[in-house]
Amino acid sequence: MLHVAEIAEGGERWAEALERGKIVHFSLCPIALPPPGDQDFLREGLAASLKAKNVSWYPRADKLTGLRSSAGLVDRARRILREHSLRVRSFLEGAMPAFTRGWEPGTSSFRPFEEKGRGLSAHASNELVHVDAGAYGATHGDRILRFFVNLNPSRDRVWISKGSFAELWKRHGAEARVAEGGLAPALPEKIWSGLLRAATGAFPMARVIDTSPYDRRMRRFHNWMKDPPSFQDGPNQRFAFAPFSAWMVLTDGVSHACIEGQHALVDTFIVPLRNCRFETPYQLLRGGAR
Ligand SMILES: [Fe+2]
Q1: Of 189, 191, 171, 187, nearest to 179 (Cα)?
Q2: Alpha carbon 35 to chain centroid distance?
Q3: Which parts of the chain have pLDDT scores under 70?
Q4: Spatial distance between the Cα atoms of 259 and 8, rounded to a whole number of angstroms
Q5: Each residue of 204-256: pLDDT tens digit?
Q6: How many angstroms does the Cα of residue 222 sit away from the middle of ligand 1?
Q7: 269, 250 in Cβ contact below 8 A?
Q8: Residues 77, 81, 84, CA angle at the centre, nearest 5°?
Q9: What is the chain's Cα-based Rg?
Q10: Could you tell me the distance, in angstroms and rounded to a whole number, from the CA of residue 233 to the centre of ligand 1?
């Protein structure tokens, strides 16, 4: 059973709640949001220029994707997402210094479309319950932290979940062929990953073509969850996030699907595995103690 944690005082208690598979919820977003004019611009000004399901800002390259448009409009969207990303980052680094130490800030995205009934392909659909795997390429066990804001002024953003990674893995891991076992990469793969990591500074996308036994197994579990109707048909927990509320969760450790809502900000961070103090998906897949 999943829990939404309302924790007044933050800091390492948030980190512990995240690691224990909780959704840390803020009934009002704890950081300043983009000014009203910029919010209107995101919600209404981009509609005619969208060419992807997300409008995303990439911090290392200061690059914006998802829009087919004039430079002026792209520049404004980039500036809004960059400023939002930096506010989220400094808030979380201030609140959870140990947990965020050495982390890698990823994209800051605006989700412009209605999530209900989007009819994407199964593996890309947000409406099917899954744990995150593969969207950023190989993590080698590092964790995926996402910070969400419902930027819709009048409608909830609705999620469903079927529980934590640990619960689902214990129940379905064998059937999904992701039971525990060695996660040590073969030597050629290790060398390949090392080369790619060295290249990541110059080529931020190098991570995307990397892989590891851990990442392949996580991806297999992700795909398995989206394939059999029997899994998707089972009971869910439902969470409704009100306008201008915010929440954060380790999305590789908590199953989730967004079934309703439009207009959200989503910031992604890769948290080093070494910062984790409690049981992780890596530890479970590998088997035994860390
Ligand atoms: Fe997801």
Answers
A1: 171
A2: 24
A3: 1-10, 118-125, 180-210, 288-290
A4: 28
A5: 555 555 678 899 899 999 989 988 778 888 889 999 999 999 999 999 999 99
A6: 9
A7: no
A8: 145
A9: 19
A10: 18
